[in-house]
Amino acid sequence: FTQDDAGTGDIPWFNYAATTAGGTYMVPSHCSFHPTIADKIMMSAGLGVFTLSGLSKNAASSYHPNWVSQSKGIEELVANGITWTSNDDLILWSWDKPIWKVTYPDAFPTSFFFPPSSATKAINHCWHMDYASSDPNFLVALISDQTFTVNYSSYSSDGGDTWTRFAADPTGSAYLGDGAGAVAVSTPSNWVIVPDTNGQSSPGPQYTTDGGATWNNCTFSDAMAEWYGSHLVYYLNHYC
Fold first, then answer.
1. 86 pLDDT exceeds 70?
2. Could you tell me how far CA 204 lies from the centroid of its own chain?
3. What is the DSSP-derived secondary structure letter of residue 57?
4. What is residue 109's predicted lDDT score, i.e. its pLDDT?
5. What are φ and ψ of residue 113, in 5° steps?
6. pLDDT by residue (tens digit) across 35-75?
7. What is the C-alpha separation between 83 and 184, in angstroms, rounded?
8. Angstrom distances, CA of residue 24 to CA of 27, 51, 121, 170
9. If pLDDT is split at 50, 70 and 90, which confidence band does 19 have?
10. Does the global pTM surpass 0.70?
11. Backbone φ and ψ of 194, nearest 5°
């Protein structure tokens, strides 16, 4: 099921699905005929409500239905959190569409951060974000794809207007590469990440001193076994 067009006056960013890599991921949940308009079908799906008009009774197998979104006023996202920097930038991080910079709270945003063109799925999640105490324009975001197998974690040097993938991702555990966890940032070069362990053993937090180019295990006097389950699963609200 693919979305083809945004309805007139609908959410400005909504028809991204027709034009971006992997954007055809839409999951139908219920379908019914319109109660008063003949030959019109309404369908609810993962991101809202869609309509289809003029369905032919004799449509060939190659027929491509033209689904049009109708979601203004009922749109919603699962918010994981909001970052409010000391520069008064307000940035929402959420499931499905990872990062939104809220410039005008009373207007629909026109775009959101979409992972690089190499992204394998249209649905991606931002799990945590922090800005550098030394530079509020510098932010780091932990982002995974919907299957938790690809890391799209990124940083921004301009207050969240644009984002760049890490030069390298933390290593040492299968779950350090999925993009879920928590991050603390002191400077544009110095960050610490506590990964989601998914209930598995973990080497614990890792840090970088070169802006994500290389990573090192944090060392502590106590046994590292205490990090087992410290960030057990992505949906628990555990941040540092």
1. yes
2. 24
3. T
4. 76
5. -75, 125
6. 998 888 998 887 788 888 877 666 666 677 777 888 887 87
7. 12
8. 9, 16, 9, 30
9. very low
10. yes
11. -105, 115
Q: What does each C-alpha distance from 13 to 72, 106, 143, 210 come to in angstroms? A: 11, 15, 20, 35
CA distance 164 to 226: 33
Q: What is the mean pLDDT of residues 189-206?
A: 78
Look at residues 55, 64, 53, 54 and name the one whose alpha carbon lies nearest to residue 1: 64
Distance CA 124, CA 118 (A): 13
Q: Say which residues have a Cβ less than 8 Å from residue 6's Cβ, sequence separation at least 6.
A: 12, 14, 15, 68, 69
The average pLDDT across 109-134 equals 80
Question: Which residue has 């932990």 as its token pair?
Answer: 142
Instruction: Render 118-175 in DSSP notation, one character per residue.
Output: T-S-S-EEEEEEEEETTEEEEEEEEEEETTS-SB--EEESSTTSS-EE-SS---SSGG
Q: Which two tokens stand for residue 27?
A: 């999951």
